[in-house]
Specification:
Elements: H1 3-9, E1 17-18, H2 29-45, H3 50-71, E2 78-81, H4 84-94, E3 100-104, E4 122-125, H5 135-141, E5 145-151, H6 163-173, E6 177-180, E7 199-203, E8 215-219, E9 236-238, E10 241-243, H7 258-274, H8 276-293, E11 299-300, E12 312-314, H9 319-328, E13 331-332, E14 334-338, E15 341-346, H10 354-364
Helix pairs in contact: 2-7, 3-7, 8-10
The chain binds pyridoxal-5'-phosphate.
Length: about 375
């Protein structure tokens, strides 16, 4: 990984020390160019002409192929959405079976992966201070559940939940499993042959350095009939009856933002050319330097590196003042919460460097 070249690919590094990638990451210049090139092509060849449609189809096929290779699943199981939240709602509103949904306690969960579920009857799993759950409690409570829901990596403490182990339990009890992978895909390896979940959702715009407004919903092929489409319009009418198309079309009604998809395609290839394991290694090195420099403060989340992502959350007596000071120095962190308590969250990604971390620490520790 040549960090000098990588930093030149990210225009943001000229202006800001940006460490809010768990919210939205910047795009490399190649992705920005891919989007503008695609818009120009459609402007020249017509947004809906035979040649443009075949370009769009090719783009969708290629992007599905890249994502399915990354996640180790079938191309057909990749459905383009607008966001993680849309994927969550496809399942929370579409699940046909009756019963309770097993979720983590909401005081530690991202609202997007909590509010849509509590419109159903839910059973809550207890959590410890990092957000971890007990596998024994999953085994105990799964018998009364129709679906299990977890975030893969927690947005606040960065804890990596044991989704592979949970998927063994859900498979054993034949209960479908939904994973919110907003904070994992692009940051850590996500292999759907190891994690046997049925549904999974993530955006382009976080750790994959893609644009906002495009996301992915993974639906295991055999499980598509468990869901009624949330947005209808891609079905057939035969003998006056609606016949649902197969996935991905079933859950992909309506046009997508194809320029954003072109950027996403380019970002995925960029990320994969660096390699997720190299990204993970670099991110954890940067997070380690930051944590080390924050040693006088309370840092949230598990201490063991293998149990967390590069999200570093810590406290301050005056969070808003510190965030303003950092922002005046061109350093972007974020304010989030853990169990109702405000915290500062830094989320470095591979294009950040050691100097940037040290500059942020000099302001925090001043
Ligand atoms: C764990 C988690 N789930 C869902 C979301 C919402 O993502 P999106 O904006 O793609 O719907 C976020 C955003 O920060 C998140 O961290």
């Amino acid at each position: 990984m040549d960090i000098g070249i990588i930093r030149r690919d990210f225009p943001i590094t000229k202006r800001l020390i940006y460490m809010n990638n768990a919210s939205s990451s910047p795009m490399p210049i190649t992705s920005i160019k891919a989007a503008t090139d695609f818009m120009l092509t459609l402007a020249e060849y017509g947004p809906d002409s035979t040649s443009s449609i075949s370009r769009i189809e090719e783009l969708m096929l290629d992007t599905r192929k890249v994502i399915s290779k990354m996640l180790n699943c079938n191309e057909q199981e990749i459905i383009f959405t607008h966001s993680t939240t849309e994927g969550i709602n496809i399942v929370s509103k579409g699940l046909k079976s009756k019963g309770k949904i097993l979720i983590r306690d909401g005081i530690h969960e991202h609202p997007a992966n909590y509010i849509p579920w509590i419109r159903n009857e839910v059973v809550r799993l207890k959590i410890d201070e990092h957000g971890f759950i007990s596998l024994d409690e999953v085994k105990e409570k799964i018998v009364e559940s129709k679906l299990v829901v977890l975030s893969h990596v927690l947005f606040n403490t960065g804890a990596i939940l044991p989704v592979e182990e949970v998927s063994k339990i859900t498979s054993e009890y034949n209960v479908p499993f939904f994973i919110d992978a907003a904070q994992s895909v692009g940051a850590i390896d996500v292999d759907l042959k190891k994690i046997e979940c049925d549904f999974l959702s993530f955006p382009a715009s976080k750790w994959l350095c893609g644009p906002s407004g495009i996301g992915v919903f993974y639906c295991k092929k055999e499980k598509q009939d468990l869901l009624e489409p949330l947005i209808d319009g891609n079905s057939y009418i035969i003998d006056d009856k609606i016949v649902l198309s197969d996935i991905p079309a079933r859950f992909e009604a309506g046009f997508r933002n194809y320029a954003a998809l072109a950027a996403f395609n380019s970002s995925l290839k960029y990320i994969l050319s660096i390699g997720i394991s190299n990204i993970r290694e670099r991110n954890m090195k940067l997070a380690g330097i930051l944590r080390e420099g924050l040693k006088d403060r309370e840092i949230y989340g598990p201490h063991e590196a293998e149990k967390r992502s590069s999200i570093v959350s810590f406290n301050d007596n005056n969070i808003d003042d510190l965030l303003t000071k950092l922002e005046r120095a061109g350093i972007i962190f974020a304010k989030r919460d853990i169990m109702g308590k405000n915290i500062i969250r830094a989320s470095p990604h591979f294009f950040n460097d050691e100097q940037e971390i040290n500059r942020a620490l000099s302001i925090i520790n001043a």
